Amino acid sequence: MRFSASAGSRRRDKYFRLLASVKVRDIDIAEYMIERGLAKKYEGDKKVW
């Protein structure tokens, strides 16, 4: 498993959560989960709860 953050990108968000991509055997876990319907891509908009 590999964690990485892009050069020049923020490593933490405004709540100090770690921002990184996760790869296992060169598979991007976020893309893997989205393709299988296990996650949704964040579009940046606020949700009405």
UniProtKB/TrEMBL annotation:
Residue span, TNase-like domain: 11-43
Domain of life: Bacteria
InterPro entries: SNase_OB-fold_sf, Staphylococal_nuclease_OB-fold
Protein name, UniProt field: TNase-like domain-containing protein
Origin species: Brachyspira aalborgi
